[in-house]
């Protein structure tokens, strides 16, 4: 047992890996094993690469850091533009739009809510399509739908129903960027590199997400409520072009022996025998991979005789033009209906429920605050216009950005240090220590918001919103990193289901929050919210202690086979 994490008898747990070479344990079996594995370079030379990269130059794990980060940056830009901006365009102007559309505050809030509902509804279909046909087509389709939705919004005039249709198109377009970016991180980066990318993405999601209300509030006040959509149209058109040129397909069918973090029975032992298996089974493996059907997503392999009776595979590195292809073949021959139900079957995993419970609930209440600002500070006696209401979001931007920047520099390093102290063995539950700080900031922030809304101090409300921004950043980073490392083989399904549930919660917030605030004191409401957030974050304790055993049980029982979801194929 390391750091309070209960061991799982004599079984290996998926996700548990020998990560760091430890000079004190050079004689141990695992340290002996690690000598034969691929390691990092430079300052990371003592770190074992998990998963192990193949020899194919088209394997995303083998791409250069600058290429990986450029692809990741473009996806983050897409996530910011498509997921965060649409609702930010109207958040600061909600009170003003009640007059323009002659609708109630709840109806105007629904313009944001239905975007979130569309994201949640579209996410399971994105899961199926991305698993089967890759992620690049989903990103491009998402950007295209966002353009269509914005065009509809710009041509609506003051017709509420048409404007709502445009908003729904924007939401459907955002589904891919909301739900599969964590899978891209798992596709391209090794375990010791993922935390910093999750932190960067959360800067985009939790901090930069609040810049649109600030900017659009100023534009709405000075130029009118439609002008933010006109500027948005320019930027998403550029984003669509950048997505086409720079977002590569990251789905890749890698031989199972390289995924040393997935198989509980071999996740430490197999790396030692990778070379042996490749040598002993070279002829069989190459005959299977070359003449029959080359794995989709790799370079085109050529079977070449090496004069020993064996067949060696030489991979051709894809050109830049080949990477521009929208269609890259089929990555999974499984029946699409089965893939759809697998998304919901993963909800039986307590880790999935934990991810939704922690990140989903706390973020949904954070989103709900966006519907409260105009209601509290828009009418007299404050009478704040769209511009000044937008400024109130700056607190969460600052708080969330500070936390994410600190996490960027410290999170992965802390995990490597913990693994070193644990005799070189890394446990995904080590990612959950960050939840302690999320609990502290979350309780202080939400409780403070309740008092600020009740006693009418916009400045203190913005300061408390900064604490909430810190909490949701920490919770999202911790939960996201844990799921990627503990259940990398099913991250698509888990994050898709989490995105669906989270956006359903967001939609509920848009429908009830304004009525709730009107019916009760904000102080009492946010006391309830604080209690819910506290309980959800405290659920980290059993997940941390029993998480390793849960990984073993989940792998042993294989719920997909028991539900007959692993044997339906198109073949």
TrEMBL record:
<feature type="transmembrane region" description="Helical">
    <location>
        <begin position="460"/>
        <end position="482"/>
    </location>
</feature>
<protein>
    <recommendedName>
        <fullName>Major facilitator superfamily (MFS) profile domain-containing protein</fullName>
    </recommendedName>
</protein>
<feature type="transmembrane region" description="Helical">
    <location>
        <begin position="494"/>
        <end position="513"/>
    </location>
</feature>
<feature type="transmembrane region" description="Helical">
    <location>
        <begin position="432"/>
        <end position="454"/>
    </location>
</feature>
<keyword id="KW-0812">Transmembrane</keyword>
<feature type="compositionally biased region" description="Basic and acidic residues">
    <location>
        <begin position="274"/>
        <end position="289"/>
    </location>
</feature>
<feature type="transmembrane region" description="Helical">
    <location>
        <begin position="525"/>
        <end position="546"/>
    </location>
</feature>
<feature type="transmembrane region" description="Helical">
    <location>
        <begin position="164"/>
        <end position="186"/>
    </location>
</feature>
<feature type="region of interest" description="Disordered">
    <location>
        <begin position="274"/>
        <end position="305"/>
    </location>
</feature>
<dbReference type="InterPro" id="IPR011701">
    <property type="entry name" value="MFS"/>
</dbReference>
<keyword id="KW-1133">Transmembrane helix</keyword>
<dbReference type="GO" id="GO:0022857">
    <property type="term" value="F:transmembrane transporter activity"/>
</dbReference>
<feature type="transmembrane region" description="Helical">
    <location>
        <begin position="388"/>
        <end position="411"/>
    </location>
</feature>
<feature type="transmembrane region" description="Helical">
    <location>
        <begin position="231"/>
        <end position="247"/>
    </location>
</feature>
<feature type="transmembrane region" description="Helical">
    <location>
        <begin position="108"/>
        <end position="127"/>
    </location>
</feature>
<dbReference type="Pfam" id="PF07690">
    <property type="entry name" value="MFS_1"/>
</dbReference>
<keyword id="KW-0472">Membrane</keyword>
<dbReference type="InterPro" id="IPR036259">
    <property type="entry name" value="MFS_trans_sf"/>
</dbReference>
<dbReference type="GO" id="GO:0005886">
    <property type="term" value="C:plasma membrane"/>
</dbReference>
<feature type="transmembrane region" description="Helical">
    <location>
        <begin position="339"/>
        <end position="368"/>
    </location>
</feature>
<feature type="domain" description="Major facilitator superfamily (MFS) profile">
    <location>
        <begin position="72"/>
        <end position="571"/>
    </location>
</feature>
<dbReference type="InterPro" id="IPR020846">
    <property type="entry name" value="MFS_dom"/>
</dbReference>
<feature type="transmembrane region" description="Helical">
    <location>
        <begin position="71"/>
        <end position="96"/>
    </location>
</feature>
<feature type="transmembrane region" description="Helical">
    <location>
        <begin position="139"/>
        <end position="158"/>
    </location>
</feature>
<feature type="transmembrane region" description="Helical">
    <location>
        <begin position="198"/>
        <end position="219"/>
    </location>
</feature>
